[in-house]
Amino acid sequence: SLVVLFGATAGAYGAKLGSDERELILLVWQVVDLHSKKVGTLHKSLVKADNLDLSDQCREVSGLTPEGLGKAEPLDRVLQQFSQLVSSDLKVLGRSSYTLCSDGQLLIRQVLHPETSKKNFLLSDCFYSFYDLRKEFHTCYPSSAAVKDQTIKTMAEYLGLGTNEAEEDFGVWQVKTMVAIIFSMLSEGCNHAFTEPETVKYKYETGPCSKSETVDSETVIRARGLPWQSSDQDIARFFKGLNIAKGGVALCLNSQGRRNGEALVRFVNSEQRDLALERHKHHMGSRYIEVYKATGEEFLKIAGGTSNEVAQFLSKENQVIIRMRGLPFTATQEDVLGFLGPECPVTGGKEGLLFVKYPDGRPTGDAFVLFSCEEYAQNALKKHKEILGKRYIELFRSTAAEVQQVLNRYMSTPLIPTLPTPIIPVIPPAYTIATGSIRDCVRLRGLPYTAGIDDILEFMGDATGDIKPHGVHMVLNQQGRPSGDAFIQMKSADKAFMVAQKCHKKMMKDRYVEVFQCSGEEMNFVLMGGTLNRSGLSPPPCKLPCLSPPAYAAFQTAAVIPAEAAALYQPQALLPTTRTPQASAAAPPTVTYYPAQAAQLYMNYTAYYPSPPVSPTTVGYLAAPPGAVAAAATATHTPILPQPGALVRMQGLPYNTGMKEILSFFQGYQYAPDDYNGLIQLSDQARSVLQAPKEWVCL
Q: Looking at the domain assignment, is residue 611 inside a domain?
């Protein structure tokens, strides 16, 4: 037997059903016996929503009113009545089992499952298997319209069914027509058999992912704006009703190994992915979640792994994974098992523990633990911030993808993680950042946050050839992410005017971008932390030069240091010969190229940062001029700090720490050389710092 089911929400109707997160307000159903071709009683039930504010489309199409819905039963009561009435009708027809049949997948996947999940009550088993009438119709009549273009009306017209929608109540006509379509498919000419129902997964299945797997880019999305404490199960619940692939939730981590509020999710097919995209800006608690397309390469980069140890650890399926952070470096497996205690036994004992280590075997203080059930995992989480040895231990829910990410991150960490790669003197610039009042620059405002340099160049079109070398400047926020703004230096004011006229409000991805002509002076004000608006220029509030500009995560290959300090950082002084890889004698020296103006920017730490400038012909890094490479190859340097280990790196400084606090911290230690003045040309501020009485010099 089939139970033909139709429903409507208080918002969008048709192809956008469920996309606006509105609640269900109507259910209509009727039992159909496929063997005897008899039908049961047609039932129509209104549903009382928590929000009775109906959209204009809903009022027009359904004819329902908030007053009428206010007298209805809530959804949980209506679903109980549904089960009881269906069972009663089946008995009358002499049947005992049934499968739902709906017009498309939206009612089941995008309305019922998400809403019941948010309201914390379970759907009965019958809602996890259903027939999609549109797919069944296309299978029976291959010459009909494509599945995505089918509606109840178009299917009825294809069969020549004479039905008048205006003669019946909303919902009743739809169900009666669906029943008539099913009987036509069962006729002798077709003899269609309903054999392969659609299924909804009961729960998300965890599992490992190998970098050797092939992941279809049409099945992956990126979710952004997640609460930092959300787990893979929370994300699976957000996408309730859609089938996520096994091990298909990968939480993204930042450079510190902490979650950054993003996740990549892999679905079983492109149809499920397209339905997931319709949940853009749906809510998880009080936060709305952005959903975008992603690629299979991005998913493998986050979730894929190659370690046999990790694969063996994750081979135990359907386990709850807990991450432990802050373990003493001397902690053993016995110590961890003793810390967790008998109330939360680890799956497989010691085999259920995975310590994270550096490539040389040193412990990182992280470990992952497997538990066989949710109860044991909850008992373990209660030990959050309890003491092991002399340290408190943090415990969090984790995922298989996070295990892979953490292991990949630490295993790829160099043995000397405290030294940047590689630092050498800054070469004098061959170009300058624009200044003056000539309006030969353009400002792009409203860029998609996912836009990169390649997207901007494609957006500019033929005008790309008129961009100055190294003339593209992305504006980053405090977290080092794109702010939605960018500046581009053109070869002339006329070129800038033409670009502003041609590209203003042109679409990039799903957003229009505003393009304004501006001057080099205005561009520099914004890049240095000022603001540019209709009321004019607002200068940067911070007027002190930053001696050490912030690092740019997107340009890891460029080592940026101030010009005054460049001569103090010689590769001979920083990298002892015993700890650097052997290089070919014929290989040219690596030269990091960065303009002095950009290295001495007046930074405002509460506003924006400029990214390193980029050339359209050298996207992704700053190329040094050939002459600069030759000069660096022939230059001879006298190491200022000849002793290995003469430099130290400080981590964990308060954000408001200044040079005076650092110098005070190191009082009582050895004196720095006092002959810097004859070696390098210093600014007045740097010279005053170096000449002041102290024990250490901060560079």
A: no
| Residue-number span of the structural domain to which 516 is assigned | 441-528
Distances (CA, A) of 597 to 2, 74, 117, 529: 73, 66, 55, 15
β strands within 34-179, DSSP E? 38-39, 43-46, 99-102, 129-132
Any domain includes 25? yes
Dist CA 472 CA 425 (whole Å): 24
Shared-domain flag, residues 365 and 286: no
DSSP 150-201: --HHHHHHHHT----GGGS-TTHHHHHHHHHHHHHHTSTTT-------EE--
Sign of CA dihedral 290, 293, 295, 300: positive
β-pair partners for 27: 7, 45
User: Are 35 and 119 in a shared domain?
Assistant: yes
Q: Region of 37 please: left (phi>0), alpha (psi -120 to 50) or beta.
A: left
Q: What pLDDT, on a 0 to 100 scale, did the predictor assign at position 91?
A: 93
Asked if 441 and 523 count as a contact pair (C-beta separation under 8 A), the reply is yes
Q: How many domains does the chain have?
A: 4
Instruction: Please tell me the predicted confidence (pLDDT) of residue 682.
Output: 45
Q: Is residue 666 part of a domain?
A: no
Question: Which pTM value belongs to this model?
Answer: 0.57
Give the CATH number of the domain where residue 502 resides: 3.30.70.330
Q: Give yes or no: residues 223 and 194 share one domain.
A: no
The residues, ordered by sequence, that sit 6+ positions from 107 with a Cβ below 8 Å of its Cβ are 5, 6, 7, 17, 18
Tokens representing 484 are 């939605």
H or E element, residue 649: none
CA–CA gap between residue 151 and residue 17 (Å, rounded): 13
262 lies in a domain? yes
Q: What is the pLDDT of residue 310?
A: 78
- Write out residues in the chain with pLDDT < 70, as ranges: 163, 167, 306-307, 411-435, 478-480, 528-646, 668-699
Residue 29: beta bridge partners?
A: 5, 43
Residues 291, 381, single domain; the answer is no
